[in-house]
Design goal:
mainly alpha; 4 helices; elongated
């Protein structure tokens, strides 16, 4: 395989930077396999989240809203979102394990001060929203 295809959900800067690390064929194949598995998992998790959100709307559409059921459903949705984020972080960590020490160093240099595992598949935090060490917005 000549390149690792990027999907919007894998738009985190690390995916783009990995392409420029001079991966060998074995690394490309391994990373593609990790990514394919993660995409399948992400699709399933997102579908479950969407179903839970539909179920929440159904609960809220009732004349007499069962607040306990609503609370339970909201907690289920939050747990699902947390699980999705953790899965993506684990995926990035697994990919990182396929890199050589030199590639890891180069990746860290390319990403600069960006956290290696920021919000998964959401992309980097825009410059104007980053906090300085004083706690003020840049």
């Amino acid at each position: 395989m000549d390149r690792i295809e990027l999907m919007p959900m894998f738009g985190h800067p690390v995916w783009k930077e990995i392409l420029g690390l001079g991966l060998d064929e074995k690394q490309k194949d391994a990373i593609n396999e990790i990514k394919r598995r993660a995409i399948k998992e992400l699709i399933k998790k997102k579908a479950d989240e969407q179903i839970a959100e539909i179920e929440l709307r159904d609960l809220l559409d009732q004349d007499n809203v069962d607040m306990k059921a609503v609370e339970t459903k909201l907690k289920q949705i939050a747990a699902s979102k947390t699980d999705t984020h953790l899965s993506m972080i684990k995926t990035l960590d697994e990919v990182k394990s396929k890199l050589t020490p030199e590639q890891k160093k180069k990746l860290k240099e390319k990403l600069g001060e960006e956290p290696f595992f920021g919000p998964p598949y959401l992309g980097a935090v825009p410059q104007h929203l980053r906090m300085q060490s004083t706690g003020e917005k840049k």
